[in-house]
Amino acid sequence: MQRRQFFIYSATLLLTSRTLAGSMAAGGQVVVMQFADDGKPLGRATLTKVSKDAEWKQRLSPLAYHVTREQGTERAFSQAGYDRHEAGLYRCICCDNALFDAQTKFDSGTGWPSFWQPIAAENVRHIVDKQFGMTRTEVRCALCDAHLGHVFNDGPKPTGLRYCMNTVSLRFVPKPKKG
Question: Is 144 among the residues known to form the active site?
Answer without folding.
Answer: no
